[in-house]
Amino acid sequence: MGKILAIALNTFKEAVRNKVLYFLLIFALLIMGFSSVISDLSIAAPEKMVIDLGLGAIDFFGFLISVFVGIYLIYNEMERKTIYTIVSKPIDRQQFILGKYFGLLITVYVNIAIMSIFFFTVLYFREATQPDVVTKAIFKELGPGKFESVGNYYVYHVQAFFIAAGKGIATLFGYWEPITHHLLRVVFMSAMSLAIITAFAILYSTFSTPTLSAVFTFLTFIIGNLCEDILRYADKLAQKAGGVAQLVGPDKMKYWFAMVATHITPNLALLDKFSDAVHGPWDAKTPTIHSVPIDWVVVVYGITYVAGVLSLACLIFNRRNFK
Amino acid sequence: MAFRAPGPCPQKTTIMIVIQTEKLSKIYSHDFIDVEYGRIKFNWFRRTVALENLDLEVKEGEIFGLLGPNGAGKSTTIKILMGILFASSGSAKIMGRPLGDKSVKQQIGFLPENPFFYDYLKGEEFLDYYGQLYGLPKSVRRKRIPELFETVGLPAHAPNLPLKGYSKGMLQRIGVAQAIISDPKIVVLDEPQSGLDPLGRKEIRDIILSLKESGKTVFFSSHILSDAELICDRVAIVNRGRLTAMGELGHLLSPKVKEYEVIASGLSKETVENVRRNAVKFIERENDVLVILPEESQARELLAKIVQEKATLVSLTPRKETLEEYFIREVSKAPGESKTAGVAGVR
């Protein structure tokens, strides 16, 4: 375990020196920051737009970090021949794969945490800087139409930002307000989905080049997220033809391709709780009734999938010759 | 896995064979399609034999040099022994146990050829990481790492300097340090002197000798023969994947004096002309002459002339066969021709 941890921490140290990581992170934070501005253009439910863009950014940029950092991790070890000194040490090759996986996962999760804190900060700040809230905070009503200034507009905003940032950090540790109470759970499910994708990125990089690994991981992510739609499409094809046996020509090929693809890839749609969070019938004032649940069966499904994919990666890596 | 030491020694000393390979072979299969110089190349079932039936024995406590030209199979042998490559056939044992055994790996330190290390790590962090891979406790690592910096002769600022700021010589030294961090019994070095300047080569040579002094077995590959000749107890020469010769240098190299090198000053023109005719090599510079004579009688004759003409004898060196000459002779032989001679001669 100590050796896996050593490899994981070294992988994390290596990953945080990757410039791509910072570009992706900055881009994600910019999107979240601007979502607040863009949402004002929305006719109805601007909060939904902020939440949708924020959660989407966390998931998508988490995925991009996992792919662009992950595909190079093992490849670089082989290309730079640092693997020579590692495999000659008293460690198993599977310990190396697990170390790399957990190192990458730590990197992805640290980034998710940063993005989440920023996202929650944006939400709290947005709420604290609504025109009526600001007015109430900096003006005291003396009588009808008579107001006395009790605070500075800019000072209030700076204060609100720091309070929002504090609350943002606290939210990551379980603190919630009506606007954020269910969002941490969505982020948790996103993190679970990224654990699966990260395992796939590691698996592909044990036997192919970075470009191919990226393509394979993208396909897995897309098919995994569209799993249920693809299955529905396959069912419709079969229904239209009057049963699977009646399928002919391209439709038969499409049907079987869809079936094979969806059965190989994980069903990431199970872990996607965005629509529940954004469009679901939740009421900010009665959070306990419409909260987004953590489906523990899905979590077990995810962990099992990760174990399976990593076992396969270890199996391939155990047989590799490093020229 | 032990045998009685050869020779007249009466005591029952047993010498452990720490590395042994039997008919070790490695055949590389090429990818079906390859892009070479911008063109697609089809390699239908193309194979390259990198190593063929290699039998090696390395004894405990010795410095063993694996020598051979580029592409001879030296690195392939070491990579198989270190578990980086898998052999196509044959077997190998280290300390009597099969390759890949973790308890054996614990006793081996390895430095690959032209190593590239994690350049973002500082010297100290780097050694700490490798110490952790050996499973060394923190207290041991904390004590051992400063000692290692001193052992391999790295400057005082090296522990806090990221590896990207290290020179080639410093990298090679920290590479040796990571190889010996666990105080292993066997140290395997792949071309440890490649790319180093003469001073760097000497330092690595000294480190290898000090490793032997501390009781470790050193197995290294090299094509720098002059260095190998200076430090190796035994050598093996591989060429085109095959073992050409193996044994102690004293057995491999002819003990007979091959030629005599004389440097003299102030000889008469007539004597110089006479000597030039007999010499294998002749160099004249101002008043000095350097002559290489094939026969002892010719050297004696020249010495008499020096005395007679009251000239000065600067040096007289009887020259034996060098490892380089032996190596070139063995390597240029046709495949299969030399193996029997060399190996049979030493076993």
Walkthrough of the structure:
The complex is a heterodimer of chains A (323) and B (347). Chain A is mainly α and 323 residues long. Chain A has one domain. Chain A has helices at 2-15, 19-39, 46-79, 82-87, 93-128, 131-138, 153-172, 183-205, 210-225, 227-241, 249-264, 274-278, 296-318; strands at residues 139-143, 146-149. In chain A, a hairpin with a 2-residue loop joins strand 1 (139-143) and strand 2 (146-149). In chain A, helix 5 (93-128) runs antiparallel to helix 7 (153-172), helix 8 runs parallel beside helix 13 and helix 10 runs antiparallel to helix 11. Among the domains of chain B are: 2-107 and 184-252, P-loop containing nucleotide triphosphate hydrolases (Rossmann fold, 3-Layer(aba) Sandwich), CATH 3.40.50; 257-320, 2-Layer Sandwich (Alpha-Beta Plaits). Chain B is 34% helix and 32% strand. Mean pLDDT of chain B is 82; it is low at 1-10 and 338-347. The chains are: A mainly alpha (323), B alpha+beta (347). Chain A binds chain B through residues 2-3, 6-7, 10, 13-14, 17, 80-92, 319, 321-323, and chain B through 28, 79, 82-86, 102-103, 105-106, 108, 110-112, 114-118, 120-121, 129-130, 132-135, 178, 188.
